[in-house]
Amino acid sequence: MALDKIPMTPDGFRTLEEEHKRLKSVERPAVIKAISEARSHGDLSENAEYHAARERQSFIEGRLMELEDVLSRADVIDVSKLSGKTVKFGATVKLVDEDTEEKVTYKIVGAHEADLSKGLISITSPTGRAMIGKTAGDMFEVQTPSGPKSYEVVGVKFK
């Protein structure tokens, strides 16, 4: 297993820490109680509640292990201390779709905090990688599931 650092914003780190805390202090005890309750119903081989609770427990334990690994390797980067005109981790980038003239804004973040619905795009995604090193006025093309897309960078800022 690689021990590479994982770039992350302070907000992303906090979100993962909160999920870890919730899983450990709320979800894990609840599923243990559900398993205990389901056991009291008798025959485990045909007990759907028991099997569902065990499956949930397996998911929780796996997610906790993943979160502990990610949090231990997190390289928290304070974006407010970054500046410049070049797209890099932490930049908020305004783009114009060359075909539709639609404007979009993305913030370049770590893979574990990416959420396209919130405008957070992973530095490791095809679009994120294509933007790195660009400045306002630069154009780039990226291959998407719906075909190639061309964008122009119209603004780069760090906030």
- Can you write the helix and strand succession as a string? EHHEEEEHEE
Whole-number mean pLDDT: 92
Helix content: 25-40%
CA gyration radius, whole angstroms: 21 Å
Low-confidence residue ranges: none
Strand numbers in spatial order across the main sheet: 5-4-3-7-6
Task: Describe the protein's architecture and organization.
The protein is α/β, with parallel strands linked by helices and 159 residues long. It folds into two domains: 6-76, Transcription elongation factor, GreA/GreB, N-terminal domain (Helix Hairpins, Orthogonal Bundle), CATH 1.10.287.180; 79-157, Chitinase A, domain 3. Helix content is 39%, strand content 25%. It is built from three helices and seven strands, in the order E-H-H-E-E-E-E-H-E-E. It has helices spanning 10-39, 48-73, 126-131; strands at 6-8, 74-76, 92-97, 103-109, 120-122, 139-144, 147-157. The strands form two sheets. Strands 5-4-3-7-6 form a five-stranded mixed β-sheet. Strands 1-2 form a two-stranded parallel ribbon. Strand 3 and strand 4 form a beta hairpin. Helix 1 (10-39) packs antiparallel against helix 2 (48-73). The chain is elongated.
Salient structural properties:
159 residues; alpha/beta; Helix Hairpins; Chitinase A, domain 3; five-stranded mixed sheet; two-stranded parallel sheet; 3 helices
Secondary structure elements and pairings:
Elements: E1 6-8, H1 10-39, H2 48-73, E2 74-76, E3 92-97, E4 103-109, E5 120-122, H3 126-131, E6 139-144, E7 147-157
